[in-house]
Every structure is written in structure tokens, then in C-alpha cells.
Design brief:
The longest helix is centred in the first third of the chain and has 20 residues, at about 90-110. The protein has 16 helices and 19 strands. α3 runs parallel beside α4 (about 130-145), α3 packs parallel to α11 and α4 (about 130-145) runs parallel beside α5 (about 165-170). The chain folds into two domains: about 35-330, Alpha-Beta Horseshoe (pyruvate-formate lyase- activating enzyme); about 370-455, Arc Repressor Mutant, subunit A. It is an alpha/beta fold. Bound molecules: S-adenosylmethionine (SAM) and iron/sulfur cluster.
């Protein structure tokens, strides 16, 4: 169930104390999957993935994710799996591979599947030439059975978008667009290696709206160098003039030991946990005041938007309304989620191509979900989406096997001396004060969490 519009988000919470934020700001996963990808192993290979595909129930609803791992330049903060390219040749060669993978995957699927969602992500899919956008779109439509009314979304970098590309996206049926902005402040943009004037973004929004693509999301980031409560407020005011349907606000994940390009960002210019918390609270306050509904940890939408009116789900792209039985990831580093588990393709484009050539599929690693994993994955997804734990719902779905988790939930309630959770008739819900710390509560149900690995792999939870 989505968080109702009246539910207070971070902004309406009683101000968390400096001490609470400092204590709870820990390196923790964002829980876009459970277990998180660092627990994937080579035990899941192309053979296992092929079997999982073949075992899907005929008539399954499927979601497709197409990864385009290329950008014109690398933004210094970027945590995505992408590469900067000046020439088009590597992109064109990569397209041959992803087409081949689409055909290979489609022929292993059971009959009568229906693709209800397609998401082109990256990287920057608008780096593709217009003719290639149309060709890849047509090939995907040819390889899979696409349901009427399917949601087809694309992530774009507005600096690369022009009218022919917008035409091409419209021609292949794109009906939802996510636009990267991050921040409009010039000092912040210089410090993150991404210069993007307001006009560039306004033009991108107009190019899509002029072509009837009305559903627009804007991505913003807080916790970036030199950001302050005032500077993020100014960015929000500018974003509101674009009247987006959805706004995603990500906390900057700074992991310079893993992501070398992030070392271009001066650590001393980064806001600390208390300042990050205050920025996210100010953003929420402004967006709630402007009539948006807060959904999950970091998304806002108009009250009439599908994200606000449909049960929320969480996948590798963040929050979604996608209720499909399986998510099929296509492209280098793409992750598939099937009822049996996760399968991830080789990350580098050449390794991806090599595996595809040798095995017909590009799976490099993954995770086979056991009974306990499925239970925990369900609890963590519901907490991330609804901020609530229901033992009745857990027992209904998992029967007697739910008992250990119900006991763990009881321990969460008993250990809580910070007012993060509140007992309900059959479990707990997170209090307004607790919601910004939902990842800390999810971590209590994570059987694989190791503090040492977390320090290297995950960014601050606040
Ligand atoms: C694939 S990009 C969006 C499309 C396009 N490449 C662009 O940047 O305009 C996905 C989004 O992830 C977010 N992001 C990237 N790196 C991040 C990081 N280190 N921490 C938090 N959010 C990040 C940004 O908001 C970005 O817009
Ligand atoms: S934030 Fe977007 S444009 Fe920038 S490097 Fe990452 S994927 Fe590319």
C-alpha cells in the first residue's frame, strides 16, 4: 500500500536530534534487492539462468530492463555502471550484443508471456543515434510479446537530447521519461563535474511534452559538495517550475575507494550526516508543501500519479509500480530477478560480449533464493515501501516459516529506545521520526549484513 498523502515524511517528523543522526548514519544498503548484489556468486551461471527462464509460468507478466552503459562524460559523483565514450563505434558494437541477447533470452521464455514494463536505463540511453533507438525498440517489440498499454520508460541526460532523439523515443512508444538534473546550483555543478543549465532541462521536458510524452520524472541528489539547505531549496523552486509528475531525491552515495572518479570530489566540501538530514528534510517539506506525496524513502509524486495510487514495489531502479512476475535484465551488468533468484550479466561490455558468444547468455553471477531469503526479501521490500511490518501478512504468505521473523520484529520493537517504530495490532510501523532511518531497521532483518563489507560497499544511510 502506498504511503498516504497525509503520512508525514521526513519534513513533518519531529526534528531528529543531532545525536540520533550521528548514531544512525551508517554504511548500509539501499535495499534495491535482498540479498544485495555484493552477495551474488558465480554459482549462478548461464545454465542456471536458462533453466530459470524456462521454468517461468506460461503467461507470466514480465518486465524488461535494457542497460545502455555509455555517457558522453563521466559525472564525478556517478555511481552507475557506465563508461564515457567520445566515439560512437563502441556503442554501435554494443547494440549488436544487446540485440543478440534479447533474441537469446526471448527464445528461452515460456509461451504466452506478456511484457508489461520496459525500462531503458544507463548510463544515458539518449547517447544512441535516433536510427538506433528506433531499431533497438523495434527489435525488442519483435522479440518479446509486449502487452497493450505497457509502460515504456527511458532515463535521459538532457544534455544529449535533441528533437530527432525525442522523435525516436516517441516513435517506439516511450510513455515515461526520467531526466537527470541533480542540482541547479552552479557551484555544486562545478564541484560534481556536471554543467547543465536550467534551460537545457526545460527544453528536454518540452521536447517530450510536445510529443505527447507527459509523464516526467526528475532525479535530484542531496549531500553533494557545497550543497546547503538554502541551495537545495533554490533547486527545488526551479524544479517546481518544470511541473514534473515525479521527483526522485537520492542521497549522494560517496564511495571513492571503489569509484575512482569520485576522488575528483573534495571530501572536505561534502555535507556531513546532520547537514544531509537537514537538506533531505527541507526538500521534503518544500515538495509536500507544493502538493506532492512522499513515497518510500526518496520519491515524490503528484497525488494522482500512478506511483501514488498503486501499491509500491522496489526493484533495481528504485521505486516502481511494476508488479510483473519477473524482471529480465538485458545488457552489460544488468540484473534479472526471477522467482528462483537473481542473475547478473558480466559487467564490462567486452566480458558481456564474450560470455554471450560462448554461452548464449551473459550471466556471470547471481543468487539462488532459499526459503528464508524469500521471507526476508518480502519483509525488507515492504518496509522500504510501506514502512510497516505485518505478521498477519507474513503468516498468510509464508505460513509457519514466518515465525522466526515475527520474533525478530518483536525484538526490533523492544530494542527501540529512539522512537523509530510504533507497535501495531500485528507488528510495527515506522514512526514519522523513524522513517528516514528505514534502512537501519531493514538491516535488522538482513541475515547477510557484515559491517566490514558494508563499510567498503555501501554509502551512509542518512
Ligand atoms: C542513469 S542516471 C540518469 C540518466 C542520465 N545518465 C543522467 O545522469 O542524466 C541515474 C541517476 O542516478 C543518480 N545517481 C548517480 N550516481 C549517484 C550517486 N553516487 N549517489 C546518488 N545518486 C546517484 C542520479 O540522480 C542520476 O540521475
Ligand atoms: S550521472 Fe548519468 S550522465 Fe552522469 S555519468 Fe552517471 S549515468 Fe552518465
Amino acid at each position: 500500500m502506498p504511503v498516504p498523502s497525509t503520512a508525514p515524511g521526513a519534513a513533518c517528523a519531529p526534528a531528529a536530534t543531532h545525536d540520533l543522526v550521528q548514531r544512525l548514519a551508517k554504511p548500509l544498503p539501499r535495499y534495491t534487492s535482498y540479498p544485495t548484489a555484493n552477495h551474488f556468486s558465480p554459482g549462478v551461471d548461464a545454465t542456471a539462468y536458462a533453466e530459470w527462464l524456462a521454468e517461468l509460468t506460461p503467461g507470466s507478466a514480465l518486465s524488461l530492463y535494457l542497460h545502455i552503459p555509455y555517457c558522453r562524460e563521466l559525472c564525478w559523483y556517478c555511481g552507475c555502471s557506465t563508461k564515457a565514450v567520445r566515439r560512437y563505434e563502441p556503442v554501435a558494437s554494443y547494440l549488436e550484443l544487446i540485440r543478440r541477447e534479447a533474441v537469446e533470452v526471448a527464445r528461452r521464455l515460456p509461451r504466452d508471456h506478456q511484457v508489461t514494463h520496459i525500462h531503458w536505463g544507463g548510463g544515458s540511453p539518449d547517447i544512441l543515434e535516433p536510427a538506433d533507438i528506433i531499431r533497438l525498440g523495434s527489435e525488442i517489440n519483435g522479440a518479446f510479446a509486449i502487452a497493450g498499454g505497457a509502460e515504456i520508460a527511458v532515463e535521459i541526460d538532457p544534455r544529449l537530447l535533441d528533437a530527432p532523439r525525442a522523435d525516436a523515443f516517441a516513435a517506439i512508444g516511450i510513455n515515461r521519461v526520467s531526466i537527470g538534473v541533480q542540482d541547479f546550483d552552479e557551484a555544486v555543478q562545478k564541484a560534481i563535474g556536471r554543467l547543465q543549465g536550467y534551460e537545457t532541462t526545460r527544453r528536454a521536458v518540452a521536447l517530450f511534452r510536445d510529443r505527447g510524452i507527459g509523464s516526467i520524472n526528475v532525479d535530484l541528489v542531496y549531500g553533494l559538495p557545497h550543497q546547503t539547505e538554502d541551495s537545495v531549496s533554490r533547486t527545488i523552486e526551479q524544479v517546481l517550475t518544470l511541473t514534473p509528475d515525479r521527483i526522485a531525491i537520492f542521497g549522494y552515495a560517496h564511495l571513492p575507494s571503489r569509484l575512482k572518479h569520485q576522488r575528483l570530489i573534495d571530501d572536505a566540501s561534502l555535507p556531513g550526516p546532520t547537514a544531509r538530514y537537514a537538506q533531505s528534510a527541507r526538500i521534503a517539506e518544500l515538495l509536500l508543501g507544493a502538493g506532492y506525496v512522499q513515497l518510500g524513502l526518496d520519491h515524490f509524486a503528484r497525488a494522482t500519479d500512478k506511483l501514488a495510487t498503486t501499491a509500491l514495489k522496489r526493484n533495481f531502479q528504485g521505486y516502481t509500480t511494476d508488479q510483473a512476475d519477473a524482471l529480465i535484465g538485458l545488457g552489460a551488468s544488468a540484473i534479472s530477478r526471477l522467482p528462483q533468484g537473481y542473475a547478473q550479466n558480466a559487467v564490462a561490455a567486452d566480458a558481456y560480449g564474450k560470455r554471450l558468444g560462448e554461452a548464449g547468455l551473459a550471466t556471470a553471477r547471481g543468487f539462488k533464493l532459499g526459503a528464508d531469503d524469500k521471507l526476508r526479501a518480502f519483509v525488507i521490500e515492504r518496509l522500504m515501501c510501506d514502512f510497516a511490518f505485518s505478521s498477519r501478512e507474513l503468516s498468510r504468505r509464508f505460513g509457519g516459516r514466518a515465525m522466526p521473523l515475527i520474533r525478530e520484529a518483536e525484538a526490533v520493537i523492544e530494542d527501540d529506545t529512539d522512537g523509530l517504530v510504533q507497535r501495531t495490532s500485528d507488528g510495527f510501523r515506522m514512526t514519522p521520526r523513524g522513517r528516514p532511518f528505514v534502512r537501519n531497521i531493514c538491516a535488522r532483518f538482513d541475515a547477510y549484513l557484515d559491517p566490514e563489507t558494508s563499510r567498503r560497499r555501501h554509502a551512509l544511510s542518512v
